[in-house]
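Our consortium's second objective concerns turning raw sequence data into structural hypotheses that experimental partners can test. To show how far this objective has progressed, the report includes one record in full. It was chosen at random from the queue rather than selected for favorable results. The single chain below, 258 residues long, was entered without modification.
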Amino acid sequence: MSLDKVVASAADAVVDIPSGSSVAVGGFGLAGIPTFLIEALLDQGADDLTVVSNNCGVDGAGLGLLLEQRRISRVIASYVGENKEFGRQYLSGELTVELTPQGTLAERLRAGGSGIGAFFTPTGVGTLVAEGGLPWRYDTDGKVVLESPPKEVRIFHGREMVLEESIVTDVALVRAAVVDRAGNCVFHASTRNFNPAAAMSGRLTIVEAEQVVEIGEIGPDDVHLPGVFVQRVVALTPDQAARKDIEKRTTRERTSRP
């Protein structure tokens, strides 16, 4: 593989993602999501996707675009959030949804990228997370037709802990602030959220970069994600890099100081 991982466009980066793929997607809400890779995948046409992400965007933005076009068949996520279409498809039996505690989801992704098959955590012990019975899919009448299985629970250091399997996906789509041509990534502030863990989990990881620099311009101590986890880099234009949406903006009138 060439050390220079920059490809010509987002369309070129996702062109060979087949239908039926599992896709880990970085970001939280709309913060740090790979907006242009998602839109390129929408245009590319792949469907029957299993998406692993903290949530599924919002109506009309992010992963919500793929949901609206019925391109996603299963979601592994932490919460439904502001996306009304996500909730509607789940409750009407159109979508399989595996809800997972947020920290557990992050660790499942990180563990997958680290070659760890499974791990024990106290999160979820004594709940349906461990005991099984979480509704994964409904039918059109609202009856549960698929539910989570029970998981192994063991005691470590005097505490009960539940076994959680790691996640490895076919593809990972992430966004970073600064990326060098070898794929070493730096994330800005809260956009560091799920992006490193999602990137680690993908067999093919694609990064959209707000800024691409030459190899050596990022100090080793400043690298948040080593380039070994990245196969393709897409350089955003300045206008694209400046596009940073937010789920809900709350403001108040500015008052003058006395």
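The partners drew two points from this record. The chain has a mean pLDDT of 95. The helical segments are 10-14, 35-44, 63-68, 84-91, 102-113, 128-131, 195-201, 238-242. Both points have been shared with the crystallography group to help prioritize constructs.
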